[in-house]
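To the team - benzoic acid complex, inputs and output below.
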Amino acid sequence: MSLHLGDIAPDFTQDSTIGPVAFHKWIGPHWVVLFSHPADYTPVCTTELGSAAKLMEEFKRRDVKVLAVSVDPVDTHKDWIKDIDETQKTHVDFPILGDQDRKVSLLYDMIHPKQNDTLTVRSVFIIDPKKVIRTILTYPASTGREFGEIFRVIDSLQLTDKYQVATPANWHSGDDVVISPALQDKAALAAKFPKGYREIKPYLRMTPQPTH
Ligand code: BEZ
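Output:
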C-alpha cells in the first residue's frame, strides 16, 4: 500500500513487547514516531534502538510516543533488548511490534523488494494526534538514522501548525523562520509577528521564531 502525507495512518492491532497494540487507540491524543528496523541482533539496529531509548525525554517533551517494528517475533525482540540495554547503556522501554506476519510492514510499505524481499527498510512515519501522516522518511538498511533530524522535523511541524510560518533550510528550533507568502496584509503581519520581520524579497520575509 502506498501512503502519502495527509493520509490517515492505517490502523492495526499487532503483538508487541508490551502486549497487543491497537494502534489508533494506543496513539490517543499524542504524536507518534513509527519506525521500522530490518532485523534483530544486527549492529546498526542495535545502535538505533539504543539511541531512541536514550532520547525518550526528548520525545516526551514533544508529546511523541515511539513505536518500533520489525518482522522478527516478540520473544526475539525481548531477548535482543537485553543486549541493547547492555551494549548501549540504556533501557528500551518503548514497544517493538513483532511483525512476523508482515501485517504492519506491508500496510506501511516498509518492504522494498529491490532492497530485500522479506526484511523492512528503515522507514520513519511521523503521525499527528489526528492520526494524519505528516512525514515519511526512508533510509537504506546500511544507514543508521539521525534522530536529531527527526526531532527537527517534529519541531517544525508543531511550530508551523500553530503559526503562519515555515522553517527554512537547515533550521533548528530557535532560528528565524519564514512568514507564509499567503500572508500579505500589513496590519495582520504586525499583529501576528510583534517581534517584527525582515523583508528580503516580498516572498521572503524572516521573523524570529514566535515561540522563542
Ligand atoms: C544492521 O542493522 O546492522 C543491518 C541490518 C540489515 C542489513 C544491514 C545492516
